[in-house]
Specification:
Pfam families: DUF7987 (PF25949). The chain has about 120 residues and is mostly helical. The protein has one domain. The chain has helices at about 5-25, 35-55, 60-80, 85-115. α1 packs antiparallel against α2 (about 35-55).
């Protein structure tokens, strides 16, 4: 039997495939590195990891948030170095926002655990 986590990840791959097919059929955003990054990192990695962070109890949510932020950074570094400078700046801004959210999430979780111990 397929686990719930695998079903979510397979669903995200299906969503990425549908987005790629939709972009290919309509041509909207076909040449944009930002659209490609949002489809690959956003739909393929960040959305399912954050969904599982909220709903899954097997793996800690903090670890899922870290995975989403780090993998989006890796995708941005490996795949978009040849994009236009403006698009690279926008992708860097999106990754920076994800990393800021990660730091804020870690700070909040650490504060809560310290407050709970007191």
């Amino acid at each position: 039997m397929v686990s719930r986590e695998n079903r979510v990840l397979i669903g995200s791959l299906l969503a990425v495939w549908l987005a790629v097919v939709g972009i290919g059929l309509t041509g909207i955003g076909a040449q944009s590195a930002v659209v490609t990054f949002v489809v690959l990192a956003g739909i393929g990695i960040v959305v399912p990891q954050l969904y599982l962070a909220v709903t899954d109890d097997d793996v800690p949510g903090r670890q899922r948030v870290r995975i989403a932020a780090v993998l989006s950074l890796v995708i941005a570094m490996l795949g978009f170095s040849s994009a236009d400078p403006g698009e690279r700046l926008l992708i860097a801004g999106l990754v920076a926002a994800l990393l800021i959210v990660l730091v804020a999430y870690e700070f909040t979780a650490g504060y809560r655990s310290t407050a709970a111990e007191s």
